[in-house]
Design brief:
Strand content: 15-25%
Strand order of the largest sheet: 3-2-1-4-5-6-12
Radius of gyration: 19 Å
Helix content: 25-40%
Number of helices: 9
Distance between the termini: 33 Å
Structural class: alpha/beta
Length: 271
């Protein structure tokens, strides 16, 4: 079987370079395109060399339409505006679109969903096996415990992260809300400061920490009378997200059009 031909969006960034290294380590996949912003100073550079590998002959380009002509999929961990621009081209080309971009708005997600009648999209705030298993556990624990247990989500990332709470924290909040049978937007408590008054029963709280080079730590705390349950995931290297995204792409290759999640990829839907 021919290897899956993949484009890496944001190929000059930290995650893009990790994706290129992950693909180089994986049988059944090959980089055929490296996408960067039109204003990037890295355009024309070799994607392999930027990732710390031997020269690959694949140069960074801003022309997704041309490079997607002979591609099977695109791995996209960029920014919302870039991802939404990529969605239309990936859909028209009929290639797999793996989306790990965070900070997407409700309208952005509506655009992504609108193309899934013709496109194969795998979207997740976090491509890690451990985080997706954590989300399944959070949903189950929230379902099992009553409102006598308060739910707080604490996340920490590197100093350069631009959105808060993290997409993964929101994913875990959604899992907790689903377990409780509530709408997260109606029960989300963020940015407490000053005289806030007592905690509102049923709220799901979020706290965001930023500093250093932390790739992503997340804890979900269920605090009840006289006891706490804490579920925690700590990522040690962004390569775990890269390998997860690559697993998603290979899984989706040949699937019917639709919107899939990492829970689908990992078979966690029944947990």
């Amino acid at each position: 079987m021919s290897p899956m031909r993949l484009i890496v969006a944001g190929a000059g960034g930290r995650m893009g370079r990790a994706l290129i290294r992950a693909i180089s380590d994986t049988e059944g996949a090959v980089v055929v395109g490296a996408l960067e912003a039109p204003t990037s100073e890295l355009l024309g550079k070799d994607a392999g060399v930027l990732a710390g590998l031997p020269a690959s002959g694949v140069k960074l380009s801003a022309d997704l339409w041309t490079m997607s002509k002979d591609a099977d999929g695109i791995l996209d961990f960029t920014v919302p505006a870039a991802t939404i621009a990529n969605v239309a081209i990936a859909a028209e080309r009929g290639i797999v679109h793996v989306i790990g971009t965070t900070g997407l708005s409700a309208s952005d997600n509506a655009v992504i969903k609108s193309v899934t009648s013709q496109a194969i999209v795998v979207q997740s705030f976090n491509m890690s096996l451990g985080v997706n298993l954590l989300a399944a556990l959070v949903k189950r624990v929230a379902q099992s415990l009553g409102e006598g247990f308060d739910i707080e989500i604490v996340e920490m990332h590197h100093r350069a992260k631009i959105d808060a709470p993290s997409g993964t924290a929101l994913m875990l909040g959604e899992a907790a809300a689903q377990g409780r049978g509530i709408v997260l937007a109606d029960h989300s408590a963020r940015g407490r400061d000053g005289i806030t008054g007592a905690r509102t029963a049923g709220d799901i709280g979020f706290a965001s920490l930023r500093g250093g080079t932390v790739s992503g730590d997340h804890s979900v705390i269920f605090a009840g009378p006289y006891e706490r349950i804490e579920l925690t995931h700590k990522s040690e290297d962004r390569m775990l997200f890269a390998h997860g995204a690559l697993k998603a792409a290979l899984w989706a290759h040949g699937k019917k059009p639709g919107l899939y999640s990492m829970a689908d990829v990992l078979g966690l839907g029944d947990i």
